[in-house]
Design goal:
The protein is 77% helix and 0% strand. The chain has 313 residues and is mostly helical. It folds into 2 domains: 75 residues, no CATH class; 215 residues, MetI-like (MetI-like fold, Orthogonal Bundle), CATH 1.10.3720.10.
């Protein structure tokens, strides 16, 4: 227990230099991009005096290091600044939009995880049969289909032709079904392929052969001996996908008008809204660190031989 606490504390301490590095790189990349966010805000026909006045107001007329120091000062107070276009606090916007992204991510994983694991197990158990080949064909198609094309086609079929669900918006179950399904298909396909490979590897382990020799039932062998030892790579894929969706599915949220982090990020990029982009980047970094931390703890729970402390790894 003490090792786990110290490991968690160490990961949170390491988050500080990581965030500093991310802020520096992101800030430098944004400032090196061509174009002027002030011109996007007021238009090119605005007078030079008005443009210069807004630059002074936003602080974009200052040098790079002075702007960066000012941003770090705000960040230390938990303030991501104000949006150039809406003049709203970025932190308030993120607090309002993140629950929507969380709902979409949870709905996606609720579809993708059981479907992906089930398909992967079926393909492994029926290895080299027609069922295995069908599953592999389906998973290859699921990984290969572009998300934006699949989302548009699904919207045309379900929303416009069949009129079963609303095409866009943020709300209850009727709004979340399509974007969750669009995200779940490639996630389930990837998870199925990983599950199949992992289950096949676990089936060759000595303890599985021993259980088979002792006459254990096939179901017990699959659940208690094979799946349990195949979970490490499966948990890795689930953690990566979940962390990615918590950062916002930019394309899917934009297509379906879902008011989440992904769409917020895209709007910030298109409008060169630097505080919005930086705020979304910071949230994304923290989310990935937390998801990776939970994944590492799950590794230790699933296989106690995996040590959390660096000395015993």
């Amino acid at each position: 227990m003490q090792t786990m606490k110290s490991y968690i504390l160490k990961r949170f301490v390491l988050l500080i230099p990581l965030l500093l590095g991310i802020t520096l790189v992101s800030f430098a990349m944004l400032k090196s991009l061509p174009g002027d966010p002030v011109l996007n805000l007021v238009g090119e026909r605005a007078s030079p005096e008005a443009i210069e006045s807004i630059r002074r107001e936003l602080g974009t007329d200052q040098g790079f290091f002075r702007q960066y120091a000012g941003y770090l000062s705000l960040l230390a107070q938990g303030d991501f600044g104000r949006s150039y276009h809406t003049n709203r606090q970025v932190s308030e916007e993120l607090r309002r939009k993140f629950p929507n992204t969380m709902r979409l991510a949870l709905a996606t994983m609720a579809i993708a995880v059981p479907a992906g694991i089930l398909l992967g197990v079926i393909a492994a158990v029926r290895r080299n049969t027609i069922i295995d080949r069908m599953v592999q064909a389906v998973t290859i198609a699921g990984v290969s289909i572009p998300v934006f094309w699949f989302g548009i086609m699904l919207m045309l079929l379900v929303c416009l032709h069949l009129r079963l669900l609303p095409p866009s918006g943020t709300g209850g179950v009727q709004f979340i079904v399509l974007p969750a399904l669009v995200l779940a298909v490639p996630a389930a396909a990837t998870l199925a392929r990983v599950t199949r490979t992992s289950v096949l590897d676990a089936m060759t382990m000595p303890h599985v052969r021993t259980a088979q020799a002792r006459g254990a039932s096939r179901r017990r062998i699959l659940l208690w001996h094979v799946l349990r030892n195949a979970l490490i790579p499966i948990v890795t894929i689930i953690g990566l996908d979940f962390g990615s969706y918590l950062n916002g599915a930019v394309v899917t949220e934009t297509i379906f008008g879902w008011d989440g982090i992904g769409r917020f990020t895209m709007d910030g990029i298109l409008k060169r809204d630097y505080p919005v982009i930086m705020g979304c980047t910071m949230i994304g970094t923290v989310v990935f660190v937390l998801v990776n931390l939970v994944t590492d703890l799950l590794y230790h729970y699933l296989d106690p031989r995996i040590r959390l402390d660096e000395k015993n790894r």
